[in-house]
Amino acid sequence: xxxxxNYINGQAVASxxxxxxxxxxxxxxxxxxxxxxxxxxxxxxxxxxxxxxFVSWSQVTPLNRARVMFKFKALLEQHRDELAVLISKEHxxxxxxxxxxxxxxxxxxxxxxxxxxxxxxEHSMNVGRGVDSFSLMQxxxxxxxxxxxxxxxxVPLWMxxxxxxxxxxxxxxxxxxxxxxxxxxxxxxxxxxLPPGVFNxxxxxxxxxxxxxxxxxxxxxxxVGSTPIAEYVYATGSxxxxxxxxxxxxxxxxxxxxxxxxEQVSGALMGAAYGSAGERCMAISVALCVGDAVxxxxxxxxxxxxxxxxxxxxxxxxxxxxxxxLVSQQHAAxxxxxxxxxxxxxxxxxxxxxxxxxxxxxxFVGPTLFDHVSSAMKIYREEIFGPVLCVVRVPSxxxxxxxxxxxxxxxxxxxxxxxxxxxxxxAAQVQVGMVGVNxxxxxxxxxxxxxxxxxxxxxxxxxxxxxxxxxxxxxKTITARWPSGSMPTGNQFSMPTMK
Amino acid sequence: xxxxxNYINGQAVASxxxxxxxxxxxxxxxxxxxxxxxxxxxxxxxxxxxxxxFVSWSQVTPLNRARVMFKFKALLEQHRDELAVLISKEHxxxxxxxxxxxxxxxxxxxxxxxxxxxxxxEHSMNVGRGVDSFSLMQxxxxxxxxxxxxxxxxVPLWMxxxxxxxxxxxxxxxxxxxxxxxxxxxxxxxxxxLPPGVFNxxxxxxxxxxxxxxxxxxxxxxxVGSTPIAEYVYATGSxxxxxxxxxxxxxxxxxxxxxxxxEQVSGALMGAAYGSAGERCMAISVALCVGDAVxxxxxxxxxxxxxxxxxxxxxxxxxxxxxxxLVSQQHAAxxxxxxxxxxxxxxxxxxxxxxxxxxxxxxFVGPTLFDHVSSAMKIYREEIFGPVLCVVRVPSxxxxxxxxxxxxxxxxxxxxxxxxxxxxxxAAQVQVGMVGVNxxxxxxxxxxxxxxxxxxxxxxxxxxxxxxxxxxxxxKTITARWPSGSMPTGNQFSMPTMK
Amino acid sequence: xxxxxNYINGQAVASxxxxxxxxxxxxxxxxxxxxxxxxxxxxxxxxxxxxxxFVSWSQVTPLNRARVMFKFKALLEQHRDELAVLISKEHxxxxxxxxxxxxxxxxxxxxxxxxxxxxxxEHSMNVGRGVDSFSLMQxxxxxxxxxxxxxxxxVPLWMxxxxxxxxxxxxxxxxxxxxxxxxxxxxxxxxxxLPPGVFNxxxxxxxxxxxxxxxxxxxxxxxVGSTPIAEYVYATGSxxxxxxxxxxxxxxxxxxxxxxxxEQVSGALMGAAYGSAGERCMAISVALCVGDAVxxxxxxxxxxxxxxxxxxxxxxxxxxxxxxxLVSQQHAAxxxxxxxxxxxxxxxxxxxxxxxxxxxxxxFVGPTLFDHVSSAMKIYREEIFGPVLCVVRVPSxxxxxxxxxxxxxxxxxxxxxxxxxxxxxxAAQVQVGMVGVNxxxxxxxxxxxxxxxxxxxxxxxxxxxxxxxxxxxxxKTITARWPSGSMPTGNQFSMPTMK
Amino acid sequence: xxxxxNYINGQAVASxxxxxxxxxxxxxxxxxxxxxxxxxxxxxxxxxxxxxxFVSWSQVTPLNRARVMFKFKALLEQHRDELAVLISKEHxxxxxxxxxxxxxxxxxxxxxxxxxxxxxxEHSMNVGRGVDSFSLMQxxxxxxxxxxxxxxxxVPLWMxxxxxxxxxxxxxxxxxxxxxxxxxxxxxxxxxxLPPGVFNxxxxxxxxxxxxxxxxxxxxxxxVGSTPIAEYVYATGSxxxxxxxxxxxxxxxxxxxxxxxxEQVSGALMGAAYGSAGERCMAISVALCVGDAVxxxxxxxxxxxxxxxxxxxxxxxxxxxxxxxLVSQQHAAxxxxxxxxxxxxxxxxxxxxxxxxxxxxxxFVGPTLFDHVSSAMKIYREEIFGPVLCVVRVPSxxxxxxxxxxxxxxxxxxxxxxxxxxxxxxAAQVQVGMVGVNxxxxxxxxxxxxxxxxxxxxxxxxxxxxxxxxxxxxxKTITARWPSGSMPTGNQFSMPTMK
Lengths: 499, 499, 499, 499
Hints:
- The structure is a homotetramer.
- Chain A is α/β, with parallel strands linked by helices.
- Chain A folds into 2 domains: 2-248 and 456-478, Aldehyde Dehydrogenase, Chain A, domain 1, CATH 3.40.605.10; 252-437, Aldehyde Dehydrogenase, Chain A, domain 2.
- The first copy, chain A, contains 16 helices and 23 strands.
- In chain A, the strands form 6 sheets. The first copy, chain A, has a 7-stranded mixed β-sheet, sandwiched between helices. A 6-stranded mixed β-sheet of chain A has the order 10-9-8-11-12-22, sandwiched between helices. A 3-stranded mixed β-sheet of chain A has the order 1-5-4, covered by helices on one side.
- Chains C and D meet through helix 4, strand 6, strand 7, helix 9 and helix 10 of C and helix 4, strand 6, strand 7, helix 9 and helix 10 of D.
- Strand 20 (434-437) of chain C pairs parallel with strand 23 (473-481) of chain D, so a sheet runs across the interface.
- Chains A, B, C, D: This is methylmalonate-semialdehyde dehydrogenase (CoA acylating).
- Chains A, B, C, D: It comes from Rheinheimera tilapiae.
- Chains A, B, C, D: Residues 14-478 form the Aldehyde dehydrogenase domain.
- Chains A, B, C, D: GO terms for molecular function: oxidoreductase activity.
């Protein structure tokens, strides 16, 4: 069986940890690869390689760092289909969805190609007479990324292209569930001309994570995952003096107004709820319908759509199904248990995905729809991260908005409406970081920034876009005066102010 | 004796804590005021007042929030001398220095007057066909500031004008050693038209601090103080999910090149080392002389300058002395013990401030100069925060630079030279956040940002300037599409990418 | 009778031109002041004073230049009512409207207070190895403003606060119809501490204008007025090598969609069409109604509103009328002749303002409403600049949009609708510089920029906001390298590129 | 003989003008190509193709427009050597220099790849209560570029990548002396996927230029060339209502301070004065030596360097010479006549290039050095645009600076010094747009902007960098309010201000 370990200093390096775990094809339930779980020492060796590489990489001009990104972009395009298949084979999502993931990640590389412009500091002449002040945005050193299984390419690509373009070096700890694509990204970076040690991959578990969070060489940690781990990462990394951005869970609501086009709403919801089997932090898992008429019509519409939705392997089947398996047997079981809980709590189970493809060895759960869900139910309060959509009925825009604002999470949300007023008020008042207006999955583009509010995010700076550049740089402010006649020669004991 | 407690919801509020401590005039050693130490409940009541005020203050337009700042600026100018006297009476610094502090704080208010421009988000039409994306920079809610004794006006003014202009409300916990000026700032804000509850002051100690760090209502914490406390604040606030910026200690080196004008160097050093009795986080406490010739000449020059330096009360004496007392008896004793340690470690004590003004009941320590200090000595390694200057001799620019980069702290530094090359290399390579070129105390102006590197700072965003605005705002990104014919009506199961 | 001449070098200076003209109170038709028309030499003396003042003013730090603006703002607030009366007495607009004009002008002063931040250039370290590049935004020298009668305070305030804050000096040539307020602004600037010669006022006609457009000392010209003069100014100033921004005429359409709230539409239209007697470059002069039902209802509603609209003097009458006189007898006659033409061309005259207040010696024309106006009519094609509103009926959004886009002018426009889609498409497709969505007079705020499209504007940069700062500064880009070992010593004959 | 005509609507199109002229290889004096000179109608057909293409190209999303630029960059890299040979064969510069030109042009394409970020407008929520304002940066329409012979690739690449990425379409009128490379660029753009009509090339003379300057469809004109033509272009284009940026001539001084390293100075000067045979608008043509000692030593050093400088064909000779021929026989004759004039005016001719390679049929003039040049001489006052360097002796920094500031042109300049003070004062005070500190040819990088001061530039916006984006976009500001309860329903007659 194929063995995956670590990528350190420009090459794949075997692990001596003695610990490993299988990597499954979720569509078949068969393990095709084994991934080793790195030791603390191995993790430290990656950090050390990155620290060594930083010395020279940070001195490469931004223009030349960008040129590596230009080449990396070309390689990503060239290998897009190969990578999409790899994603599907380990994550389970369908091929076209994996292509979409890659495009979104690629766009961050495109953004990072503009780093010479993005790294500009500010320059002020004569902040005082004959005194100038300017700022430099310098790289931090070794940065770490810890990324989830659900986007094995896109989420790492939110982080390292910008970190590296800024002059940092990087250690990525991807999910151990789908490690192959991150390793391929490392190879492509090397092929693009990135010097050894600038980008490293450590496959591992909490052992590796804890080294990344505590090793004093690591300057910054970027994390995407569940909220409890995000909190742990934020608290631990911060307690060790690092800057941390940690993105956590979500329960994204779509508010469906009575003036929305239900055809569009149901189309958008089907994709946003069941695409990628609901394993997206921007998936819509709650449809808030304003009024029973909207809810009744929408549920009926969804029910008929679900009836024809095809569930199957992400690759190798023609035509492509709309939905693949979940990532693991355990996760599928957990999602089924949430469905059980919903039934037990009294929600109306309109479509039941628990037995879909039950004869397959793959980790399938079919599209599931609950109606009459209340905000007290567990299936409403918690993030299920599977193909389970809850319909909640609210009497008005205001109560819908209030419900969203009361939820623990504030990652994404959407409103579907024809009304400019409703859209504006929703955008202004909703306590959520990413807001769609007639857009079900409002993931900001690479040149804007990704991040939620409330317990969906920890740390002041979002991922990619201008915030990403700020996160991966340290400001240095120089204040300069060139004496001779202009400089006062007497002693100055008072707080200097500028004339 | 005058009693100072808290300022909550637009007015001074007495404390029921039963705990209090005296506030001294450091020049006389006499306590003239008593400050109560707030209870946890009192702290929570300030937070609660701020939370209530947030509801309406955050809805005031940026333009109108700015106009309160315009009025506050006018009041600060009108009351500048009164405030400077108050600073001197509690902190000890001389009157003209206190005026300088106020000017520097005032400049942040001026910067905050530009908030309508500074709060602009980004707008992109057609991120995809018919899809627009834009960002809003919205206020966080209740923010807290915890500030040190050495700048009772300036450091709070680094924080709250921007926080408030951004639409937040604020709870300030100033140093209990000089609480009067923060209370006056609160009164002037009210006079400027700031609604009750938007700005609150809690006088207290760790009890109050811990509430601010852990109360879930508080969204952000800004701190300036010593490194151990900065670390505690950063770790604790972060562990409670908040965004934190925590500025810590310093050991600021001035690198004196052989081509520097020694007249200018000694003038700059006298002010930077002994101004405000060395109680500035940007004070120069180490002069790194490149070559013995430079050191010998500089030490001789400083010695003669020290001989004529006047130490005395910060106000009421004409002509004004150059240096006032330290802030407290305990701190003066601690500084003296550092001098003892320096002698014990073998540094050459060129000027000894231990007995200066020894007949006064004030907390005086005179200007102290050590030569032949080595990097192993405690007086080199630790922040003394008093009028003690260490001369260290290095053979070259490179070794001077290396020494600075090896120090734990990286707050401020300066180089004195006539050489463009030396200045550029120093600015490029030094691992310090604020760098002066022939400027001894390179505090960035209000429209730039203040912050160090290494263990002088925790958190990615600096204070005031554009970073300050980013710190006190939460980004919200809206992605909007207006359907009708333009919107695809089919289901979309793949990761949406933009056409 | 009061004599107004020029303000040069910090004081009012009498004219020796021998040419002058009366300044009327349009509400009474009585001349209360005489304004001299400057000679070419007098104009050159103002330029010369400005050139001399530039030498030192450009060296004042931006921080201190901003502080003059802070004081000027305070003085404008203090004198607001006095200034509003002066505006009304010479322009005719009602007092509260004049107050509004002043507020809008004041906001540009507030924006200019942020000049230390706004003037920042960009700084890039290592554009090549060891090579840095940064930009300075430096003042131009002497700038000129030529402004129209309809906003004697606001339009000059769009220009000179930013020009001056950027370090330039300024010669203003305001309208000779209402010269008093510009002179008062000059006095208040002097009172605010602006040094003599930094701001100068020349009252005059084409003689003065032509000197400003051709004198080689003048670096930049800002103009607001009619399109033919804007073209002349742009062509002539450009032919003399200057940078020019010239804003011209307008014919602003409001597109009224069937889903708009007609109560709001008619309220908005009444103010936008008849406020300031229609003498605003952002007035709405065409209401495009989508469908006859909308048009019929709106016309009926407007007719009844017009019936109760009070016309009268802008000050001294209680309650304040809604509309004052036009600026001059000639202009009133011209507006009446347009009404005659509309009748002759077959438009339906719903309300006829020609005889309103006909017994007054003031220059009154009452609110006039035409229905069934076609795009071929003169009253549709030309800017009337009076209280004449044309209703044009279109069958659809698309035809309404097309009509707007076919018009010669593209200054402002508005759509009234409840539909997010209509608003977005309108904003995206309309070829007009300033677009209101349910906002009848979408004048951008001071921190955004003012400017139209098509023949409403000449020159690439708009007024005030960031564009204003760019217009009044010249970029200088420094590229620096500090040799020693790092610099190649061989000859380099090839186009240097950066490593 | 090869015939070159126009590139319109995605393909090469023959000309029916009947007018043409030969294109020479300046190294051999042999014409190898014939270029037709377009008629007015042919020029209009290119404009018309561009206007048609604008309709759809402006609707392509910035992201997708950028992707064409990414592909174009890859093609430029792939064809770099082929293009460099073509440049050398028509312009005469040596191959490695032509490669350098291409790299500099390529960098603008790289900058344009970041257009999705660069095109962002500003968004302000609540400029007034419930009122939002945001700006769009929309394309202009058809833009024109008129470019000189000396950089047949680089100067067009300063313009069209940004113009096109912004959504405009483009008509390029390159120099008729070296038309082949612009035509190849057009082909490569088509190969990169640019739709027909977006980029067009018209080869021609004043006939074509005048159409571009006067045709109402053309919205913007970018020009680089001599000052008289720049003035003509600026005046004519402006008189026809267009936005114009016109870059003219130069006389770039290098100020050599006594503390400069003469080895470095002479190396820098040899390249900056004689590279590309001095046919660069950023060439150094005047060396201002501070003090006779500097001048004597530098002249001696240059003389010996000139003695070994190889002049010869730009390609095909190994090792590559340092300098190729001038572009044309006429231009070579003109340069020789300037040398004659310098001798006649009394300058000391240290090295005489008039007879260099006199036996060749190529258009060679050798490196020429004058000493003791005075500011009154024609060779000092005028731009020679050939390999002629003038040494002027000045007694001090101040007089050197004054001389530079008195010159008609202000394109580029440099100072060579070791002094930070001299560099800073020079950068602050010199009235020149592009300033090198120990950098002889301080051409700003693509992400900064290129432009001079004084009579070297006409128009407020520089080329490429952020200014380039501003030049090629029109701002549209939307102000939006969504009524219902929030909107006042009464009539509003006063100037609307924001609450």
